[in-house]
Amino acid sequence: xxxxxxxxxxxxxxxxxxxxxxxxxxxxxxxxxxxxxxxxxxxxxxxxxxxxxxxxxxxxxxxxxxxxxxxxxxxxxxxxxxxxxxxxxxxxxxxxxxxxxxxxxxxxxxxxxxxxx
Length: 117
Fold this sequence. Notes:
Blueprint: H1 2-22, H2 24-42, H3 47-77, H4 83-115
């Protein structure tokens, strides 16, 4: 039972590593995450603001992970160009875009009071 749990974490970290290694946008998310965390530390944000930022950051990373998984599955299932596969990939990418826009709005709402002083 414990070994199964440990193995599941290993698989999850392997997936995270694949995403970071193969997806250029994951590097953009990583830099954005570091900038936001650094700014949060600099401004000594209260717990409520940290909770909002952690949810926003997590949402973007989950979106990128699901987008990457969908792309890999689609490419494996249908290597040739297919319009429905293109739609699936475009929609998955749109989900990441929506998550990123929501995260940017949350970031603006959290940091605006500190930047406009």
